[in-house]
Specification:
The complex is a heterodimer.
Chain A lengths: L1 E6 L9 E6 L2 E5 L3 E2 L13 H17 L17 E3 L13 E3 L9 H5 L7 E5 H25 L12 H5 L3 H8 L9 E2 L4 H9 L1 E4 L5 E3 L3 E7 L7 E6 L4 E5 L22 E4 L3 H4 L11 H7 L6 H9 L3 H21 L4 E3 L4 H17 L6 E4 L3 H8 L8 H8 L7 H6 L3 E4 L5 H6 L5 E3 L9 H9 L6 E5 L4 H4 L9 E5 L10 H8 L3 E5 H4 L10 E4 L4 E3 L7 E6 H4 L5 E2 L3 E5 L3 E5 L2 E5 L15 E2 L4 H10 L3 E5 L3 H5 L5 H4 L1 E7 L3 E5 L3 E6 L2 H14 L1 E2 L1
Helix pairs in contact in A: 3-6, 9-18, 10-11, 21-24
Chain B lengths: L1 E8 L8 E6 L2 E5 L25 H4 L2 E3 L5 H4 L2 H7 L6 E4 H21 L7 H9 L1 E4 L4 E3 L4 E7 L7 E7 L2 E5 L23 E5 L10 H17 L3 E5 L5 H16 L5 E3 L2 H12 L6 H4 L13 E3 L11 E5 L7 H10 L6 E4 L8 H6 L5 E3 L5 E3 L3 E4 L8 H11 L3 E5 L3 H14 L4 E2 L5 E6 L3 E6 L1 H8 L3 E5 L5 H5 L3 H4 L2 E5 L5 E6 L5 E4 H8 L5 E11 L1 H10 L9 H18 L5 E3 L3 E4 L2 E6 L18 E9 L3 H14 L5
Parallel strand pairs in B: 3-4, 4-5, 5-6, 10-11, 11-20, 12-15, 12-16, 13-14, 13-15, 16-19, 20-21, 23-27
Antiparallel strand pairs in B: 1-2, 1-22, 2-3, 7-8, 8-9, 9-10, 17-18, 24-25, 26-27, 28-32, 29-30, 30-31, 31-32
The chains are: A alpha/beta, B alpha/beta.
Organism (chain A): Durio zibethinus (Durian)
Keywords (chain A): Cytoplasm, Nucleus
GO biological process, one term (chain A): snRNA 3'-end processing
Chain lengths: ~700, ~650
């Protein structure tokens, strides 16, 4: 097995991406887009004076290469391109056999792959991820169209800003976005796919339920298990004839919206690929997430304690913390609304938005403020409707709502009561007639470069009473550059987006893998005691993992096995196999198949040992065949030891017909003109030799 | 190893479905239904047959319920709360959501009928708490060895067929299913599985149905005619299932025909049920599913809540009233009011239990119905009987059994004589042993078991390369020659010897091992001893000689290389005419078919020659052949062909 980490990603929106080689199949794990690099581009509309100064002032400055604080003019004024996984384009897409997608974010780059010629891989995605992912991609395309209309059609396929002379004059922060740390990422930029590409891509996707078995090529069985990060996100198990692999993406034990992390489903696998990089993105304030001796000592208990440990993992302190965060955001929002400001929430995490909507409306209701909540997005209506028809994908508490006949999420009721208004775009006529300020607006995109957020941010950026709620992980300095000077309050909030490091150890203890692939970047933060077989991986380095099993399992049907003709030797009992071999669900099975009687070989095909010529002659005479031994060959004469007696001899058969048997140390040649006689001689030879 | 199926209910009858299957040490109860026709202890399956002591937790591994109809789930609260079963119970999400509504509705009915109440409302709530919901196709690991999986069954929302696997043995219990899609549900869907046993329903064991669209049209026409004439339509129905299907049908028709006549739902129950249906839209048919974002199909536009005061309001209307079959309650109340008018219409389902008013209406066309001693209803209204059913027909059952081709089949949930007919068909047409046990009988069938072995890398790799052999049957297989189809039977036969190259080695105290034959000797530490055939025989080449002498009169004793090639070439042509399916390689001086090689022997005394004395004249050449044991038959065939090509050989 070979494993290559193509990218460790960055944060919730940019999943890690790996290439795996198992049982001769090449598997791509996730195919995300790095939307944070959109920060390089200037959002539309651009302030007018920026255009004027472009020719004079800034060009001179650029030429002089004077580093100064960034301003909006430094951004690239062009139709944005999109950055894919930097190392993926180095691989031939047509050689990929399977693509496993673990989250809606992990499929944003998929249309780039599926539209390449000769792409023929099977893509597996959970049903919910596929639907949400499709909506995210459609939304991205529609937001991009808005920008396109502004810039008009591109003249050449190679945009101006990608020329070296342009790139060289970019300020260092922006150059890093464009070229990467080592100036090798320019090849990752792509012009966005079209709506047709998205549709095409979705046609090639095979959707799965959680824990549904999908069998690729009769050899690999892949199964998705809930990861708890977001609705529909999953971890994968890949079972081949020789390898059982579990792939752990960013996971959350207890979620407020999505189904919990189903770690018990990952048990029984030899190899674990740990790919939750979320603790890398955490700020240094979380330094106390170092390996904790207390948890480790409790983890060293008996195996009988496994269930207790599992329960302790699920006992969450994290989700309570998450609720506190939401309450805090809502409280801040309420403060702004009270003083007449509006609240802008460009957060694109479905689960967080759904929970925020519930909290926010609850709080607004109790405060008896009549403030409307707007959701503006081309796909919001569909997305919100979708979240209410997927009880199988949400957390236990919400499933209980189904069983008691209530909607899964409160927004259904709130939309009906007209407390939440959903519009497809900022310019939709319903919005214009309904608009009132102050208000709370949820809209895409978190990069602050695309979508309704750009217009609203321009509208409110100078209002000191208004509030902007950002996810942490967004580089606020660059993101807010086009909107400066900002009078608006900014609240940056980090949400839980993966396993905390102190839970890794107990988790591995429960899963009991033989091998673990672990990110090198995280290894310094944690000590893993029991699993002594740890492979550390880093970006763009291929690891070879030795196979744990020497041989392959084969199942032989009992009814077939009972028909075998056994031969006993010194220690072993052996038999030639019959039947038909099937490869099904990664298992080799030997079943009794259709075999016409004549094709069955009754006679041994492989012989060993050395025949005793005298015994052979006796056996022949039993069959009524008589002959004499002629010692002829010269090499036999040269050897005088006992062996030579039967090492090379010719038996001359004269009755019933003439025939010769040339017996040597390594082989016997039967020379006969008659088929019947020949086969009789073979039978005699079978008796004196060992064979099968 | 065997699979025991103890049929506790629905054996040769419809009602109280319940089968307990023991499979490799695991015991699963499929369905836990009640019989609507009885009011005494016979309405529940006889649970004492599972465990005398009542220790059901140890006697059963799990309970699986296929759908929310009472004849499949009705006894569950009794079993868990009264009998005390505390183990896991599995059902699909919709079944878990809707079952309490059905049970609660039934419990209230029981109160009304004054029967012994066997379980309470609290019992239902407590019972449902123990249920673990499952999604379709999700592989649920019940314990270390037992896996179950649900497949879409149509029938009602959330209905599922269940697959169960323990070790190497596997089976499917279908519950009720429908092989054709209806207005709101899709058709049953299942993977091709390797099964030892299928237990299938057989409600319509002998019926073959035509398209449902004609029958839907009939229903809509009847309704439309009635309301056009200003009449009222009463549709007595149970709250779940049929009501939603008919409502979608009507809603669609209303839209198309631009009708404004109100459609009413009598009790809150159906409206509440629609709430569930809206969330469970993923479990409906593809067509309805796709509309969820724009308009949820269960957001009925024309549907309103009914009020008692509206019973005698003027003007036409359509009313869905519970319970179905006009057992009593509100549907009876409305029926009493509407039945006397010829303008009105009552629709009845395809099946009504004996003793209900629905059943009386269906049998003939009564003008008067006696409700009790004092009450008599004048029936002048029209009656329309719905003729579509959510069960599969006989063709569907046959199709499913054929598709799954299990080693054994058991029929339940049907009428005895019809089941016997279907059983015969399954045995004769599909060649699958089939059983229809009565209640409390046990059927035992053998189960698959595999012997585990390790296969060597060489064997697996050699199996990856196809090694086909093609041969024709006709002349070889005598059994075909005897039959009148002998001509049709003769044809290409493909055999593959990859498996036969494998050797199974069993050593005491070690796991059985499969190796390739080439590896065997290495393992045994013995040397290979090659057994071969050889035969060098003269062949008369008169004709060839002639042509040659004409061209080259001088050289007459030696055959030059060129001539050797010509001869070989001629043989090759001859052979390919006679052996059309053999792969003949012409290597110039040598001819090769599989392991058989023939070449022209120029030696004076070849060790493979039997008669040295024979004429060494120029008229004949020697053909030296050798071949291995594998191709014995083929070799002799070739030799006889070669010999027959020149009549003057010795």
């Amino acid at each position: 097995m070979k494993f290559t980490c193509l990218s460790k990603g960055g944060g919730f929106h940019f999943s890690p991406c790996h290439m795996l080689n198992v049982s001769g199949f090449r598997i791509l794990l996730d195919c995300p887009l790095d939307l944070s690099s959109l920060a390089l581009f200037s959002p539309v509309p651009v302030a007018h004076q920026a255009h004027e100064s472009l020719d004079t002032d800034s060009v001179i400055r650029k030429k002089q290469k004077i580093e100064k604080t960034l301003d909006a003019n430094d951004l690239v004024h062009a139709e944005p391109w999109y950055k894919t996984v930097k190392n993926l384009h180095l691989w031939d897409a047509s050689f990929i056999d399977v693509v496993l997608i673990s989250s809606p974010m992990g499929m944003l780059g998929l249309p780039f792959l599926t539209r390449t010629r000769d792409f023929s891989a099977k893509i597996y995605v959970t049903e919910a991820s596929a639907r949400i992912g499709q909506l995210l991609m459609e939304d991205l395309v529609s937001m991009h169209m808005e920008l396109r209309q502004f810039y008009g059609p591109e003249d050449s396929c190679f945009p101006q800003w990608m020329r070296w002379e342009e790139l060289e004059v970019l300020p260092s922060e922006l150059r890093k976005i464009a070229l990467g740390k080592d100036c090798e990422e320019l090849g990752a930029w792509m012009p966005l796919y079209s709506a047709v590409d998205v549709k095409d891509c979705m046609r090639k996707v095979q959707t799965l339920k959680y824990a549904e078995e999908a069998c690729y090529n009769g050899t690999l069985i892949v199964k998705a298990f809930s990861s708890g990060l977001e609705i529909g996100t999953c971890n994968w198990t890949i079972n081949g004839p020789k390898k059982n692999i579990a792939y752990i993406s960013s996971s959350i034990f207890v979620s407020m919206h999505a189904m919990d992390f189903d770690f018990l489903g990952l048990r029984g696998n030899d190899l674990i690929i740990y790919s939750d990089f979320s603790s890398l993105d955490k700020n240094m304030e979380n330094d106390d997430t170092y390996f904790d001796p207390v948890t480790s000592s409790s983890g060293r208990d008996d195996v009988s304690n496994l269930e207790e440990m599992a329960a302790s993992l699920l006992k969450d302190d994290e989700s309570a913390e998450e609720i506190e965060k939401l309450v805090f955001i809502c409280a801040c929002a309420l403060d702004s609304v009270r003083v007449g400001g509006s609240v802008l929430v460009p957060i694109d995490r479905l689960g967080v938005v759904l929970c925020l909507l519930e909290q926010m409306s609850l709080l607004l209701e109790s405060s008896s403020l009549k403030v409307p909540i707007y959701i503006i997005s081309s796909v919001a209506e569909e997305l919100l409707a979708f979240t209410n028809i997927i009880p199988e994908w949400v957390c236990k508490q919400r499933q209980e709502k189904l069983f008691s006949g209530e909607p899964l999420f409160a927004h259904v009721k709130l939309i009906k009561e007209r407390k939440i208004h959903v519009f497809p775009a900022v310019h939709s006529p319903e919005l214009l007639t309904n608009w009132q300020e102050p208000c709370v607006v949820f809209c895409p995109n978190w990069s602050l470069r695309l979508g309704p957020v750009v217009h609203l941010l321009r509208h409110w950026c100078s209002d000191p009473n208004s509030l902007l709620v950002l996810e942490s992980g967004v580089d606020a300095d660059i993101a807010l550059l086009p909107f400066k000077p900002m009078a608006m309050k900014v609240l940056q909030c980090s949400f839980l987006s993966g396993l905390s490091l102190q839970k890794v150890q107990p988790l591995l203890k429960i899963l009991q893998p033989k091998l673990v692939l672990f990110p090198k970047d995280l290894s310094c933060k944690i000590q893993i005691s029991e699993a002594n077989m740890i492979f550390l991986f880093s970006e763009n380095e291929t690891l070879r993992i030795p196979s744990s099993k020497e041989s392959t399992d084969i199942d032989i049907a009992t009814d077939l096995a009972s028909k075998f003709r056994w031969k006993t030797f010194k220690q072993e009992t052996i038999t030639r196999l019959e039947g038909e071999l099937f490869m099904d669900h990664g298992k080799h099975r030997l079943l009794s198949g259709f075999q016409p009687a004549n094709s069955k070989q009754q006679r041994p095909l492989v012989h060993w040992g050395s025949p005793d010529v005298k015994v052979l002659l006796t056996e022949l005479s039993k069959m009524g065949i008589s002959g004499t031994i002629k010692q002829v060959t010269d090499d036999a004469k040269s050897e005088d030891d006992a062996k030579s007696e039967n090492a090379a001899a010719i038996i001359d058969i004269h009755d019933p017909e003439k025939a010769l048997i040339d017996v040597r140390e390594t082989g016997t040649v039967i020379i006969a003109a008659n088929e019947n006689l020949a086969s009789h001689i073979v039978k005699a030879v079978d008796i004196v030799l060992d064979g099968i | 190893m065997a699979i025991d199926s103890l049929v506790l209910g629905a054996g040769q009858e419809v009602g109280k479905s319940c089968v307990v299957v023991s499979i490799n040490g695991k015991r699963i109860m499929f369905d836990c239904g009640m019989h609507m026709g009885y009011t005494d202890s016979r309405r529940y399956p006889d649970f004492s047959l599972i465990s005398n002591t009542g220790d059901f937790d140890n006697a059963l591994t799990c309970v699986v319920v296929t759908h929310f109809h009472l004849d499949h789930i009705g006894a569950l609260p009794y079993f868990t709360e009264v009998c005390g079963y505390k183990g896991p119970i599995y059902m699909t999400y919709p079944t878990k959501a809707l079952a309490p509504l059905m049970l609660e509705d039934y419990r209230k009915n029981m109160d009304r009928r004054g029967e012994d109440e066997q379980f309470t409302s609290d019992h239902i709530t407590e019972c449902m708490k123990k249920v673990i919901p499952v999604d379709l196709k999700q592989t649920v690991q019940v314990d270390k060895d037992l896996q179950i999986r649900a497949y879409y069954a149509g029938h009602v929302i959330g209905a599922a067929m269940f697959y169960a696997k323990v070790g190497d043995a596997a089976m499917v219990y279908t519950g009720d299913y429908n092989m054709t899609p209806d207005r709101h549900l899709g058709a049953a869907q299942i993977d091709r599985l390797q099964l030892d046993l299928v237990i299938t329903e057989s409600t319509y064991a002998t019926t073959i149905r035509d398209s449902r669209y004609g029958r839907e049209r009939e229903f809509l026409k009847a309704v439309h005619t009635c309301i056009a004439a200003g009449g009222k339509v009463l549709i007595p129905t149970f709250a779940l299932g049929r009501a939603q299907e008919l409502c979608i049908l009507l809603e669609d028709y209303w839209e198309r025909m631009n009708l404004k006549v109100p459609i009413y739902f009598s009790a809150g129950l159906t409206i509440q049920a629609n709430m569930y249906y809206k969330m469970l839209i993923n479990w409906t048919s593809q067509k309805i599913k796709e509309t969820y974002a724009t308009r949820n199909a269960f957001d009925f536009k024309n549907v309103r809540n009914f009020d008692r005061s509206l019973i005698n309001a003027p003007g036409p209307c359509v009313l869905f009233a519970t319970p179905g079959m006009i057992v009593g309650g509100f549907s009876l109340e409305v029926f009493m009011q509407w039945a006397p008018s010829e303008m009105n219409l009552v629709t009845l389902p395809g099946y009504c239990v004996a003793g209900t008013i629905g059943h009386k209406l269906m049998s003939g066309k009564p003008t008067k119905i006696d409700l009790d001693k004092d009450t008599q209803i004048d029936v002048r209204c029209q009656i329309h009987q719905l003729s579509f059913s959510p069960h599969t027909d006989a063709k569907g059952i046959m199709d499913l059994v054929k598709f799954l081709s299990p080693k054994h089949a058991i029929l339940v949930h049907g009428e005895k004589p019809k089941m016997a007919t279907l059983k015969e068909r399954i045995q004769s047409e599909l060649g699958i042993p089939c059983y229809c046990p009565a209640n409390n009988e046990t059927v035992t069938v053998p189960s698959t078991h595999y012997v585990k072995a390790d296969a060597s890398e060489t064997f697996i790799r050699s199996c990856l390369n196809p090694n086909f052999k093609f041969s024709t049957y006709s002349s070889v297989d005598k059994s075909y020659l005897d039959s009148k189809y002998s001509k049709a039977a003769s044809g290409l036969q493909v055999s593959d010897e990859r498996v036969a190259e494998g050797i199974l080695v069993v050593e005491k105290g070690k796991k059985a091992k499969v190796i390739h034959q080439d590896e065997l000797l290495l393992m045994l530490g013995d040397k290979k001893h090659e057994v071969q055939f050889a035969y060098c025989f003269p062949m008369h080449t008169e004709r060839l000689q002639k042509t040659r002498t004409e061209e080259l009169p001088s050289a007459d004793t030696l055959l030059c290389d060129l001539d050797k090639c010509t001869l070989i070439n001629q043989l090759s042509m001859k052979l390919s005419n006679e052996l059309s399916d053999a792969n003949i390689l012409d290597l110039g001086e040598q001819l090769q078919v599989e392991s058989f090689r023939v070449s022209i022997c120029s030696k004076n005394s070849c060790p493979h020659r039997l008669s040295h004395s024979v004429h060494n004249d120029s008229e004949s050449v020697f053909l030296c052949c050798h071949w291995s044991l594998r191709d014995e038959k083929l070799a002799w065939k070739i030799i006889s062909i070669m010999k027959s090509s020149s009549p003057h050989t010795t």
